[in-house]
Amino acid sequence: QVQLVESGGGTVQPGGSLKLACVGSGFTFRYYVMKWYRQRPGKEGVYVAGITIDGGRKSYAESVKGRFTLSRDNVRKTGYLQMNALKLEDTAVYYCRAEGQGSNTAYWGQGTQVTVST
Q1: CA 66 – CA 117 distance, rounded (Å)
Q2: What pLDDT was estimated at residue 6?
Q3: How many CA atoms lie within 13 A of 92 on its CB side?
Q4: CA angle 74, 35, 2 (to 5 degrees)
Q5: Which of 87, 97, 80 is CA-nearest to residue 36?
Q6: What pLDDT, in 10s, does the model give residues 65-109?
Q7: Measuring CA to CA, which of 3, 54, 77, 84 is 20 to 30 A from 32?
Q8: DSSP helix, strand, coil percent of the chain (3-state; round to 5)
């Protein structure tokens, strides 16, 4: 059974940090590009960051550049999103997505809530 399970969400004050994790199972994790998206209440989901299968290339949305860092551990089948200097507008449900390189196969996690609040 294919699963992507996110964890690490929570509530922090502005300026705080959180590290999200996304663990994959039931598929060959190391052959999948990992991406993160977020969805704010009443809004469509938007791209946050992505990392290639070997971790050699990363991309970030302008809104998170310099604050968020993406990484992955293919042995542990886990992707990570380190979020620093969090802002109120980072509040959202964060989803990880695994996309098969060169295929149309993709999987979504269930999402984890991140709340930045005073």
Answers
A1: 21
A2: 95
A3: 21
A4: 60
A5: 97
A6: 999 999 999 999 999 999 999 999 999 999 999 999 877 899 999
A7: 84
A8: 5, 55, 40
Tokens of 18: 């959180």
3-state secondary structure of 87: coil
Structure tokens at 95: 């989803």
Q: Residue 104: what pLDDT?
A: 86
Unique residue bearing structure tokens 């604050």: 67
* Contact indicator for 75, 30 with CB cutoff of 8 Å: no
Each residue's pLDDT tens digit, 19-52: 999 999 999 999 999 999 999 989 999 999 999 9
The C-alpha atoms of residue 82 and residue 67 are separated, in whole angstroms, by 8
Closest CA to 106 of 6, 8, 37, 27: 27
How many helices (DSSP H) and strands (DSSP E) are in the chain?
0, 11
Instruction: Give me the phi and psi of 11, to 5 degrees please.
Output: -115, 130
